[in-house]
Amino acid sequence: MENGHVELYEYLVDTGCRSEFILSLLGQKIVEDGDVIETKDKIVANQGYLNRKLFYSEGKLLDSDGNAVMMGWETPLMKIHSNIICKKGKKILNVGFGLGIIDTMIQESEPTLHTIIEAHPDVYQKMVDDGWTTKPNVTVLFGRWQDVLQDYQETFDGIFFDTFGEYYDDLHDFHQILPNILNEDGVYTFFNGLCGTNQFFHDVSCRIVELELREIGFNVEFEEVTVDELGDDVWKDTKRAYWSLPTYRVPTVTFDF
Ligand SMILES: C[S@@+](CC[C@H](N)C(=O)[O-])C[C@H]1O[C@@H](n2cnc3c(N)ncnc32)[C@H](O)[C@@H]1O
Fold first, then answer.
1. Containing domain of residue 165, as a range?
2. Three-class SS of residue 160?
3. Of 149, 232, 163, 206, nearest in space to 20 by CA
4. Which CDD domains does the record associate with it (predicted)?
5. How far apart are CA 210 and CA 202, in angstroms?
6. Ligand 1 interacting residues, C-beta cut-off 6 A
7. Helices within the chain (DSSP H only)
8. Angle 78-74-99 from CA coordinates, rounded to 5°
9. Residue 154 included in any domain
10. Which of its termini does the chain have fewer beta carbons within 10 Å around, N or C?
11. How far is the CA of 199 from the centre of ligand 1 (A)?
12. For ligand 1, atom 3, which residue shows the shortest CA distance?
């Protein structure tokens, strides 16, 4: 790509997407004579994380293994995401509280309903301590979105998804229920950290997620945002950097009628 071989690069990205689709199918099912004979049990991708102790320190949320769960450098990105889903007086869903950065922004739009789903007990405790569970327009659902959304009958004008430690399969599963919880003229966006330290795999992931959302009936647009160089200082005290790309692609997802 750096040497201008755009066509070749695109060919490789397409090949990457095809491989991923095939591998994902093979991972899900064992097929014999065209019949599915076994479906792999669902595992909780981030159970280890959900059992670990968390620490809030200096604009960071870290787990006891040193993994950065959420960091302050993402604030400008959260602002862009919140601008996409928020208009005054709407019903908004946010999945994953973390540092509460986007939830604080969502509150500024005076939503009629602001639902927050959070699965980690330490984060939930922080939400209780900071008064989130008693705000009049806020409903906090404590648990994994996979569990709590099953019994929650509500639809939203704006939805943001940003969990931690889950696989692409989980995002894929969330997208399958999106048509049931997003209002017809609603807007959805998600934290696009997919393979955020490798440009090629990031490009493959962005194309896959776009194709899958289109297949379900959504329109997807990516806005490219330049990310300032994040120096070593940003990642000090953390186990590893989870983002190193120069451009962040912000997805805007709406129903394609
Ligand atoms: C990256 S943080 C979210 C940061 C947030 N966007 C902000 O602005 O501060 C991810 C959050 O998702 C939560 N989480 C992880 N898996 C979850 C799940 N399956 N359901 C609900 N919350 C989950 C984590 O405990 C963590 O608080």
1. 54-255
2. strand
3. 206
4. AdoMet_MTases
5. 12
6. 46, 69-70, 78, 95-102, 117-120, 123, 144-146, 162-164, 166
7. 6-28, 47-51, 75-85, 101-108, 121-129, 145-148, 168-181, 199-216, 232-235
8. 80
9. yes
10. C
11. 24
12. 98
Write the CATH number for 243. Answer: 3.40.50.150
85 domain-assigned: yes
Number of domains making up the chain: 1
Please report, rounded to a whole number, the percentage of residues in the chain having pLDDT higher than 90.
85
What average pLDDT score do residues 82-96 get? 97
Does residue 21 lie in a domain region? Answer: no
For a pocket test of ligand 1, which of 120, 140, 141, 248 has the largest count of ligand atoms closer than 8 A to its C-beta? 120
How far, in Å, from the CA of 13 to the mean position of ligand 1? 29
Residue 65: the pLDDT is 93
Instruction: Please indicate, yes or no, if residue 123 is contained in any of the structural domains.
Output: yes
User: Which atom of ligand 1 is nearest to 75's Cα?
Assistant: 8
Over residues 48-63, mean pLDDT: 94
Q: What are the tens digits of pLDDT across the range 121-150?
A: 999 999 999 999 999 999 999 999 999 999
User: Which atom of ligand 1 is found nearest the CA of 103?
Assistant: 8
Give residue 221's identity as a one-letter amino acid code.
E
State the pLDDT at residue 77.
97
Give the whole-angstrom CA distance, residue 170 versus residue 175.
9
